[in-house]
Description:
GO terms for molecular function: carbohydrate binding; kinase activity. This protein is mostly beta strands and 227 residues long. The chain folds into two domains: 15-152, Orthogonal Prism (Agglutinin, subunit A); 157-222, Agglutinin, subunit A. The protein has one helix and 21 strands.
Amino acid sequence: MNLSFINLSLIFLLFTTSTSVSGKIFSDHISPDFTASYLTGDGNTGTFLVSRNNTFKAAIFNPDKQQTSFFYLCIIHSASNTIIWSANRDAPISNSDIVKLTGEGITIFDKNGNSKWSTPTLKSQVKKLSLTEMGNLVLLDQFNHSLWESFQHPTDTIVIGQRLSVGSSLSSASSSSNFSTGNYNLTITSSDAILQWFGQTYWKLSVDSKAYRISHDDIQYMTVNTT
């Protein structure tokens, strides 16, 4: 797959069993009840789920090998090892903390059983968690209807097939090894795309010399094409 994506840091340079098994990597989806940690992933990268053709992987990942308490639930583009999404960016966990999939959704627990991150209350029970070939992590009900998607909760990256709706933002990571929310934001409004630093606007798509407008209708979303 020829992947194109926008990572915010680059902009600023302008489950089927009840328990996880050590070393086991599932393909396409997993079902409740499922539990994983870095220690019960593949033993090397923390990977526990891959998309059907291995384009993306879900992993409990540590970007800084020197830190044992900076692990994140991530979606990673396999070929480039680019992290396109992280769940608990502002609440990192240790290598022994767990990610649990139940009928209620996804929850990340620390070793004391405290919730560090979770999906919101859902309208029906979860039947499975799927990782698509576009890198979208999706909770599905018994009718394969989407209950929750990572694409609707972007962090610092947008990929082909993903829409950044009006009112949503990409926020930079603090550093390459610390995924906590940084100080740069790309926000989509009904009339523009705006880059801000500490809340101060320093760039707008509407005034960029390379941009051109083909319609005066309100903007609905931003997406990335393949060119």
